[in-house]
Amino acid sequence: ITEKNPTVVFVLGGPGSGKGTQCANIVEHFGYTHLSAGDLLRAEIKSGSENGTMIQNMIKEGKIVPSEVTIKLLQRAMQESGNDKFLIDGFPRNEENRAAFENVTGIEPAFVLFFDCPEEEMERRLLSRNQGREDDNIETIRKRFNVFLESSLPVINYYDGKAKVRKIDAARPVQDIFETVKAIFAPKNE
Ligand code: UP5
Ligand code: MG
Known about the structure:
The protein is of the alpha/beta class and 190 residues long. The chain is 53% helix and 14% strand.
């Protein structure tokens, strides 16, 4: 039996830092499958699943959905993709997410992209997104910022301790950021 050993890159950064936008570009150029944990959870709400109401309430409050729910959705999406290279966007969001994913899947990320952006800029972006997301109101945005600082930054620091974090200045135009991102993914000359 051969163990499949997929390549996983975690794509992290505060709410509105541009994770989804940059992932779309990476997919086009480097053949990864983009899995946004938030998108998977929102799809689960729409599907009318038994967890839907619980997920919807947590997202409205900017809270982190229990790991087992999110990990199941990620695992299913990985299996269904047929690919072996994944951008996991917006997960893990806390230490428990991180440890549970590692324990359940046995996967460690190749590296972690960290889109670093000031709150004022992220707030501007979220308030002008206008895609009908129930969490894009100033009250929920403030809660999302707090959860990011308290729970998600420690995960980034954990991976930084393992020299896995590629920190990117995300307060620039989309194309400039992508130039930096490309240099990280491009095969290096030996
Ligand atoms: N934009 C993007 N880049 C720009 C740039 N360089 N300059 C100017 N504008 C830029 O971008 C946001 C907006 O900014 C867009 O309008 C874009 O055009 C513009 P986007 O690429 O969407 O940023 P992103 O970082 O993906 O923002 P998002 O709001 O998706 O981040 P969140 O982390 O808040 O949302 P996510 O969907 O990951 O999670 C939502 C909620 O789900 C969480 O709060 C939580 O409740 C729940 N959740 C879990 O519980 N567990 C999980 O594992 C994941 C989510
Ligand atoms: Mg997103």
